[in-house]
Amino acid sequence: MVDGRPRPKSHRLAGGETIELEAPPPAAARAAVVPPPAVVYADEHLLVVDKPAGVVVHPAPGQRGGTLAEALATAGAAGGEPGRAGIVHRLDRDTSGLLVVARSPLAYARLRRIVRRRALTREYLALVRGRPRSRRGTIDAPIGRDRRDRLRRSLDTAAPRAAVTHFELEELLPRHALLRVRLETGRTHQIRVHLAAIGLPLAGDVTYGVAGDLGLRRQFLHAARLAFDHPLSGARLDLRSPLPADLAAALVAARRS
Q1: In 10 A of CB 3, how many CB atoms?
Q2: Which distant-in-sequence residues (6+ apart) come within 8 Å of 247 by Cβ?
């Protein structure tokens, strides 16, 4: 469309016109089939799974297939939007660890309330380059899409959303520090952005941290613990996941560096 009107391919532009076009759909690509993740806890109402790194949680622009949501559909995930059934929170593609998933619309609604009330304890292990100034701290800094790079999140944003991250020193290493991080909110890339903002970038993080550090091919960030009251029975669940092999090897290397 040129100035709101269709024009033939041979139409010549004079300059200053407004051009509108509809981009062609991307070529369909055969997405890899994601194997079912390891199940840490299961009952008729919910699952807690251990997501491997490299897997996208649910479909998004540029990632229509090969998602964790597809694998979970065969495990009875239910509730919420089509294509992301049962998903009440997410992990970045290259972040590994624990994720709770609903198996019924009722469980989905109640888990969503637990997340909104910030009653879902989410703890991560993060290896950062540098030394924290204190053994524990809180980062309270709104984040949103970066003003200049739409693929990044940043404190420099035109659409800030409240974000709070708590951290505690787990182990001090020669050039790194292992932190235990707890999310109060769950913004996209929150831990990665917040830690980089205080001068503690994640080892291996190609976007906000130190790419290739310690031989890592992804950020050293692992969702190691989930704790919450069961949405139907009220029983307390406190579940943990050990470091996967690539992060465990990087931690050994950091202790020697």
Answers
A1: 10
A2: 96, 125, 127, 216, 220, 222
Residues 121-257: name the CATH superfamily: Pseudouridine synthase (3.30.2350.10)
This prediction has a pTM of: 0.83
Say how many CA atoms lie within 13 Å of 64 toward its Cβ: 6
Active-site residues, by number, are 92
47: helix, strand or coil = strand
Q: Which CATH number fits domain 32-117: 3.40.190.10, 3.40.50.300, 3.30.2350.10, 3.20.20.140?
A: 3.30.2350.10
Residue 37 is encoded by which pair of tokens? Answer: 């993740």
Under 8 Å between Cβ of 72 and 101: yes
32-117 shares its CATH topology with 121-257: yes
Rounded Cα distance between 111 and 246, Å, is 31
- What six digits make up the tokens of 245? 């092999």
- pLDDT tens digits for range 115-173: 999 999 999 999 999 999 999 999 999 999 999 888 899 999 999 999 999 999 999 99
Question: Residue type for 127, please?
Answer: L
pLDDT score of 64 = 52
Q: Which two tokens stand for residue 153?
A: 């999140």
Domain ranges of the chain: 32-117, 121-257
Instruction: Give the rounded distance of the alpha carbon of 90 from its chain centre.
Output: 5
How much is the pLDDT for 192? 97
